[in-house]
Write a structure and sequence with these properties.
The complex is a heterodimer of chains A (201) and B (253). In chain A, a hairpin with a 2-residue loop joins strand 11 and strand 12. With 201 residues, chain A is an alpha/beta fold. Chain B has an eight-stranded parallel β-barrel with strand order 1-3-4-5-6-9-10-11, surrounded by seven helices. The longest helix of chain B has 16 residues. In chain B, helix 8 links the parallel strand 10 and strand 11. In chain B, 36% of the residues lie in helices and 24% in strands. Chain B has one domain: TIM Barrel (Alpha-Beta Barrel). Chain B is an alpha/beta fold and 253 residues long. In chain B, helix 1 packs parallel to helix 2. The chains are: A alpha/beta (201), B alpha/beta (253).
Chain lengths: 201, 253
């Protein structure tokens, strides 16, 4: 069973539907008690980084503990940004801090928000999230802030500047794009994430 | 590189797509879910369901349509037509829409844009602007193009963006249904004035029209209905044409 955190940051219908489509049982959780019995954790979210303030100290401690005890965790969009230390968008709201770095506003001679299909450039190092997926595939994005390129970067995308469109370290995964809206590529990525969870069972 | 988007619009009335659809192999001509699945296979980047019904029964049918369309679709789905309130928006989003498109309701109550963006995020809120050339520039019309508003398109688009809209769907009333090409001047005027993406609509007739609106028109996306119904591979062929003319396109799906 995949636990999806519902902290009030946007609509989760599409995320739930996509996990169902790849054969997962899903439970929406709005308190840390819901983590019990989950085989994997998903932190979704759209909108302002300040919305992650609902994921306060209790949540941060519980998620870190879950990851330490072997629960694969996937942040989607705002959820990826939350894996970092914080964001320019809401400087007083701390992120989970599993990955070093702060998210920044996209700027340049381009439209912001960055909306639409853009390509994922995959480094040559192996990735469980992108197993069977070729560099250069397209995914659907919609966001104004982005995470820096760091050692954990598993895919980069460029919209005036390059940013982490995916991160991966041990059991911690994050995607800036929306796998639930990225067609067959997106479903393949969710399947790969589920496989990590099932291998650990 | 960010691709330019092609968006297919399904005009739906009482659960069926109106306008002639003649794809071979569809079990039921005009079934929105089948047509959506077909477009998805052909590589469409996004779908818009436009409700052209006015009756209460039609609204209920629309929610069923959204559920059916979104059940098999993992690309963005926008829904427009007759969304007048937070409750209307909530109903279509709960049924599976990723974005709602507001037109007359945003004109009547611009605060609705901000309220919806506050709950669902700006990425879920499209403001649709129907514009027509007139003595005062590009004039905005509400109520399906029947009522002239005391607004002009560029200013209204800026205000909508300031109020939290995530995208603008810009339709040229002059060109709509003519197949004589998008109004590139209108599209460029709005697209260069706002920081958010602009979807051009109205007038698509040939692949060249799309090339023009993505270059001279500075459009971020283009929406059409009937041109995609002409042939079985219309979407795929159009994408390949545009890519061969240097327009960034998503070609993997």
């Amino acid at each position: 069973m995949v636990a999806i955190v519902d902290y009030g940051a946007g609509n989760l219908t599409s995320v739930i539907k996509a996990f169902h489509a790849v054969g997962a049982d899903v439970r929406l959780i709005d308190s840390i008690d819901g983590l019990a019995g989950a085989e994997a954790l998903v932190v979704p979210g759209v909108g302002h980084f300040a919305a992650t303030a609902s994921l306060g100290p209790d949540w941060r401690a519980a998620v870190r503990e879950a990851i330490d005890s072997g629960m694969p965790t996937l942040g989607i969009c705002l959820g990826l940004q939350w894996l970092f230390e914080g964001s320019e968008e809401a400087p007083d709201t701390p992120g989970l801090g599993m990955i070093r770095g702060r998210c920044f506003r996209l700027e340049g001679p381009v439209k912001v928000p960055h909306v639409g299909w853009n390509t994922l450039d995959l480094p040559s190092r192996p990735s469980r999230l992108f197993d069977g997926i070729a560099s250069g595939v397209s995914a659907y994005f919609t966001h104004s802030y982005a995470a820096p390129c760091v050692a954990e970067t598993a895919a980069t995308t460029t919209h005036a500047v390059s940013f982490s469109s995916a991160v991966e370290r041990d059991l911690v995964f994050g995607v800036q794009f929306h796998p639930e809206k990225s067609g067959t590529t997106g479903l393949k990525i969710l399947t790969n994430f589920l496989r990590v969870a099932r291998e650990r069972r | 590189m960010l691709a330019k988007r092609l968006i297919a619009c399904l005009d739906v009335r009482d659960g069926s797509v109106v306008k002639g659809i003649n794809f071979e192999g569809l079990r039921k001509a005009g079934d929105p879910a089948e047509l959506a699945a077909r477009y998805n296979e052909e590589g469409i980047d996004e779908l818009t369901v436009l409700d052209v019904t006015a009756t209460l029964e039609g609204r209920r049918a629309l929610l069923d349509t959204i559920r059916q369309v979104s059940a098999r679709l993992f690309i963005p789905l926008a829904v427009g037509g007759g969304i007048r309130s937070m409750d209307d928006a909530r109903a279509v989003i709960d049924a599976g829409a990723d974005k709602v498109s507001l037109n007359s309701a945003a004109l009547a109550d611009p605060a609705l844009i901000t309220a919806l963006a506050g709950i669902y995020g700006s990425q879920a809120v499209i403001v649709a602007i129907d514009a027509k050339r007139g003595p005062n520039g590009f004039e905005v019309f509400g109520r399906s193009g029947t009522t002239r508003e005391a607004r002009e398109a560029v200013g209204w688009a800026r205000e909508a963006a300031d109020r939290g809209a995530g995208e603008i769907l810009l339709t040229s009333i002059d060109r709509d249904g003519t197949r004589s090409g998008f109004d590139c001047e209108l599209t460029a005027a709005v697209s260069t004035a706002v920081p958010i993406p602009v979807i051009a609509s109205g007038g698509a007739g040939t692949p060249e029209h799309f090339r023009e609106v993505f270059s001279a028109g500075c459009a971020d996306a283009a929406l059409a209905a009937s041109i995609f119904h002409f042939s079985e591979h219309a979407v795929r062929d159009l994408k390949q044409f545009l890519a061969s003319h240097g327009v960034p396109m998503r070609l993997d799906w």
